[in-house]
Amino acid sequence: MGAYILRRLALVIPTLLGIMVINFALTQFVPGGPIEQIIANLQGQGDVTAGFTGNGPDTANMFEEASNSDYAGARGLPPEFIEKLEKEFGFDKPPLTRFMLMLWNYVRLDFGDSYFGAGTVIELVIDKMPVSITLGLWSTLIAYLVSIPLGIRKAVRDGSRFDNVTSGIIIVAYAIPGFLFAVLLLVLFAGGSYWQIFPLRGLVSDNWEELSILGKIADYFWHITLPVLASTISAFATLTLLTKNSFLDEIKKQYVITARAKGQTERKVLYGHVFRNAMLIVIAGFPSVFIGVFFSGSLIIETLFSLDGLGRLGFEAALQRDYPVIFGTLFIFGLIGLVVGILSDLMYVFVDPRIDFEKREG
């Protein structure tokens, strides 16, 4: 197993490099880069310096300098200003040089400063992380705690009225988009048109620091109830059917028939023999399920519930062409995803020690 893990770890570097090369190359052909974004804002009307408060290039002073010149506005920008702007952002260098410099900085864990945000990329990610961890962790845990018992019961009572009714509910739940379910929750329970039971926005209340420990815990769960429910609905449906089908496949195998023939109770057969094999794919997939909920589908949920998480961070960075945030988060999340893939394999071995990836590869 050790040799297999070393081989998987060795593949992380070329895989991550390939991800970065492809995405960096794609950005070279996407119109409206950060320089164009700044020029468009500068030539428009209004406060063009408001959105540029990062630790990166000194765009605010450059805006003020250009705005006070005779070339600002409809009369165009001086070439000297554009050249200075490109130098500040590093776009005076060839793409290959910029890419190699970016990789060298990433090797040293230097992900740079956001062009338009107040802070470094790491500071922004850490600041947004609690929201995404909340949605990902609690949604995954609730999905597993509900789906596994329900899936087992559906498998045992396959074809019964209980199985048919719950299957109908699950199919309806799976068909409802998460954002639509979130809107329904807001309308019903957050003061939309009916009851004001849960708060409309935020992860905690404004007076959270003044609350007792129990008060903080209660306030935290009070705020996350609706967004977590909205994030859980699709994962819950998929995981329930996966659990049921896994159990049905195992129940029909010969070793189950043999165990019953030996006089073992149905409970012992179910949980002593079937459970380990049936739960292999379900339990071992926990890391990947968590990462899936953690990174995907959170943008609309965060927006609806006014939660400032990684989903909104990535979306806003893409709109603003904030390349340090885009590539920094891509590198970090790509690395996490690859490591989670290895952890998933380790989970398979932990759940069923009979699995040997080295022999399978041989």
Automatic annotation (TrEMBL):
Cross-referenced Pfam families: BPD_transp_1
Main localization (coarse): membrane
Domain ABC transmembrane type-1: 129-348
Subcellular location: Cell inner membrane; Cell membrane
Transmembrane segments annotated in the record for this chain: 9-26, 133-152, 164-190, 220-243, 278-305, 325-351
Membrane topology, from the record: Multi-pass membrane protein
Keyword terms, alphabetized: Cell inner membrane, Cell membrane, Membrane, Transmembrane, Transmembrane helix, Transport
PROSITE patterns found in the cross-reference section: ABC_TM1
Gene Ontology annotations of biological process type: microcin transport; transmembrane transport
GO cellular component labels: plasma membrane
Family per similarity comment: Belongs to the binding-protein-dependent transport system permease family.
Entry protein name: Microcin C ABC transporter permease YejB
Species in which this protein is naturally found: Pseudooceanicola antarcticus
